[in-house]
Amino acid sequence: MITRLVTPLTAIRAEDLSPIERQQARRLMFINLAWLSALLIALPFVISWLIELRDVDAATVFTPITLLISLIIHSFIQRGRVEQARLLFVLNILVASLLATFPEYRIDNPFIIIIFLPLTAAGVLLTRARLFAVTFLLIIVFLVGGLLQLNNEMGPTLIGDPVETISITMILVIVMVLLNAFMQWSFLSGIEDTQREQRRSTEVISTTNQIGQAFLTLSSSGEELNSLVEQLREAFGLYHVRIFVADPNSGLAVMQASTGYMGRRTLEDHKLFTLDENSPINDALRRKDPLLIRDSDPENRRTEFLPATRSELLLPLRIGNMLPLGVLDLHSTDRNMFQEHRLAALATLSYHLAAMLYGTQQAKELRTAYEAHQRLNVQIEASQREMARLNRQLVSATWGTYLQEHQDEVPGFDWRPGSTIAAQVSSEWLNRTLEEGESMLEYIGDKAVLTMPIRLRGQTLGAVEFRRSGTTHWSPAALELVQTVAERIALSLENARLFEQAQGTAQREQLVSKITSQLQTTNDLQSLLTLAAEQFQDALGATQTRVRLGLPVNPPADPSA
């Protein structure tokens, strides 16, 4: 019941404050509440004083006003207007202190005691320039009040009898000491908290850098990712860490790494853990901003097998506007674990992790493409070898038939200066070159013998032999020239054969056309057969031609039956 009443009064409703500014606003609120408490404690004494003296002065009138100003300060703090609240608080204490302890311009013990309260508040809450202004104002007031009191020969102010004056002075001393101590404690604790936050931020940055460096050498294998999530859990003091990756087929999240026993079990048996399409993980996969889930959220937004989780942070793993790569799932037993500075560090880590997953994905795609390219190259090379083999077979068969048809002709030439002799040339080097299909260069005494195969599409058709006298070696340019000449000879021979083949084909076509025309001149069967025999005999040079008409005795079976 008390908590429900106090929480709205002490809540900071501003959302755009940094953690340090929110912390400072909360401390200022506590100081202002302490000042309100002091005013409420002093209020009965003020009322009794009014009743006893029946005199209303500026100090008594300002008491309810300072209460109202304190409420305004409280409203400023809740709305996040911390700077205005600080200045108004110091001015409120300054005016209240002067009016309450400086009636009729008397400098007495209560004034000396209370005058340090606004000075302490200014030192704790204001900037150095404003602290100097408050100090200068207090010095001026002190000097003016002291001079007036000396000129008017006024004694110390008594509140009733001396005993009551001493009692009030003691109460004021105790209250002022407590207020000063509280403000100093708040100021020092603020410094300590700031230093603590700075140390935490430094540790977070250092941890982020270390884990980020680990990402650079990490692959997406399960063992390395499991090692990473364990390192991440220990570094940030988390309860549980998981990594989900987007399935390329379904587009849903699939767990890739996890800490703890249950996480390892779900990795081994995916049936123990299935994600619904509308689960928070898949919801985060479709988002661009982090998703924070607390223990006060509905149960369907929380993880069932992690009951100790009080806050869960889901960080989408994205690179720019590209498709999502996965989700980094972080669990903590601290409800306020994922504050702004930790959220920024973890977001940076998620960018590193996304870059690692993207790089691994690209490397996998490149490796797959490279392997496919290698397989294609192997297939192309095999096809090229097969085509070369078929070409060699075709050239060998074609030229084998051609040479057999021209076996009566002399297949060789012996060229010497001044004469070219067609002859059956043969030598040891020519025979070896024809057998091996490779060029040869030998130096025999004062002679050099060079043989070069005549190859057409990988098939050796012949060989050419060069001899030269003297000890001069064949230069690389001369060897290249011989190879080029041999290649040109092969092409020229193939062109000549093709031309001769084309001529023969044309002659045969002409002869077929002629025979067909002769056969079409008669319709009598006897005359047709006689004419066909005569034409075939003339065309083929046959000495006898026979033609028989009749059906086979045992006809072959009909394949379509």
Could you give the topology of this structure?
Elements (H helix, E strand, L loop, with lengths): L1 H9 L8 H35 L4 H21 L3 H20 L7 H6 L1 H10 L2 H25 L9 H55 L5 H15 L3 E7 L6 E6 L1 H9 L11 H6 L5 E4 L16 E7 L8 E7 L7 H66 L7 E4 L2 E4 L5 H9 L3 E5 L2 E10 L2 E11 L6 H44 L5 H16 L21
Antiparallel strand pairs: 1-2, 1-5, 3-4, 4-5, 6-7, 8-9, 9-10
Structure description:
With 561 residues, the protein is of the alpha+beta class. It has 3 domains: 2-199, no CATH class; 221-367, Beta-Lactamase, CATH 3.30.450; 413-514, 2-Layer Sandwich (Beta-Lactamase), CATH 3.30.450. Helix content is 62%, strand content 12%. The protein is built from 15 helices and 10 strands. The chain has helices at 2-10, 19-53, 58-78, 82-101, 109-114, 116-125, 128-152, 162-216, 222-236, 260-268, 280-285, 340-405, 428-436, 476-519, 525-540; strands spanning 240-246, 253-258, 291-294, 311-317, 326-332, 413-416, 419-422, 440-444, 447-456, 459-469. The strands form 3 sheets. It has a 5-stranded antiparallel sheet with strand order 2-1-5-4-3. The protein has a 3-stranded antiparallel sheet with strand order 8-9-10, sandwiched between helices. α6 runs antiparallel to α7 (128-152). The chain starts with a helix and ends in a 21-residue tail after the last helix. 20% of the residues are buried.
